[in-house]
Each structure stands twice: as structure tokens, then as C-alpha cells.
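ingest -> validate -> predict -> emit
validate: passed (alphabet ok, no gaps, 231 aa)
predict: started
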Amino acid sequence: MNLSIIIPTYNEAANIGPLVAHLLHNGGNTLAEVIVADGGSTDNTLALATQAGARAVSAPKRGRAAQMNHGAALATGDVLYFVHADARPPANFVGDIAQALDEGYSSGCYRFRFDSDRWLLRLNSYFTRFDSLTVRGGDQTLFVKRSLFEALGGFDEYYVIMEEYDFLRRLWAKDKQTFKLIQKDVLISARKYERNSWLRVQLANLVAMTMFRAGAAPVRIAQTYKKMLNY
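emit:
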């Protein structure tokens, strides 16, 4: 296995340095590179990413799907691992992914837990151990063989929101049996819940997922979601 990590960013100066350091420290010789694909940050995300040891690039098109596709196009590894800037994979992520590949899986993700002890957030985290699209998401990170990623056409840049749900939906339609849900936790930020009430975020998520399943235009989903939450 030769692993390339791709991190899409926009104004993630507070998170990117420690994340890149964590990934490089635990990646070992299996890790080909950490690529930070930035969407026009106005802070020093790119400089901090470079300082931490990543290959930091400005994507030609803003948007998480476009940025991740750009990072994937630059990657040299035969396995791609997509990680959000405010997520922290387990220290043994390389071993976990290698084991999944050895078992015959071509893609997969983790569960998650929040960096908060609020019981409602612990409840949210609990449900990510189940194999359902509703409780999946990019925060849980995603690894996928490059050959499979390319066969699926990468992320559909039409999806300015819900891009990872769309990718998983297409991946599972092709062959869900080769997707592994690793029963370990990625640590993710609770910042969205700190800026909004738990109920408000849950309602926004429900509306977005309902619109996605109904085939609503991603631009409309994004506009609705942003109106419902305080960013």
C-alpha cells in the first residue's frame, strides 16, 4: 500500500498544522504524501500546512468536491485517504487501512466521536457504528483505492454540498460488500454544535438529507442549510 492523504481546506489555520503533524508522525514509510488542497483561504492555512510538512496547493476551483478531486489528481499513492481539517484519525490509521485492504476491502471509513462530553453528542456518535448512509459523512474520513475512485469518476463537482454522500451512494451501488466500516473513532470538532443548538443542527441535517434523497439541486440544499445554521 502506498497511501496519499488529501485534506480540503478553507480558513483552517487553527487545525491544519496539528493535523498534518499527527498524520506524518503516524504515517511511516507507507505514507506517500499529505496534500492540502485549499479553496482560497484568507488566513495562513497554506503557510502552516507547508510548515508542518504537507504539500499545500491552491485548487483552481473552490468547493470540497473540486478541491478533493484536484488533490487526488496530484496524488501518487495507489490508495487515497480523504480527511477533513477538523478531524483526527486514530494513530494507527495506516495499520487499520492496510488490514482492511488485506481483508479484500477496497474502501471504507471510521465511526466518529466529538471532542465534547455532552451526552447528546455522545448519542450522535453512537449511531455512527451502524452501516447506514444517513449516519455517514466526510467527518468520518474515507479511504478508497485509486482505481475504484477513478472508475467512479471521483467526486461529482455538481454537489457543492453532500458530495461525500453522493460518492458513497454511487460506491455502494457498485459494490457495497467491499466497503469496510472500521469500528474505531475519528475525533471530530463539535464547533458546529457550539455555535448552534443541538436541535438546530439536527434539524438542518435532517432537512439537507431529505432534500438530497428527493433529488433537490445541491445549490438549493446548500442555501437552505446555511440559512438554518450560524456559521
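Strands lie at 3-9, 31-38, 55-58, 79-82, 87-88, 107-114, 142-145, 179-188.
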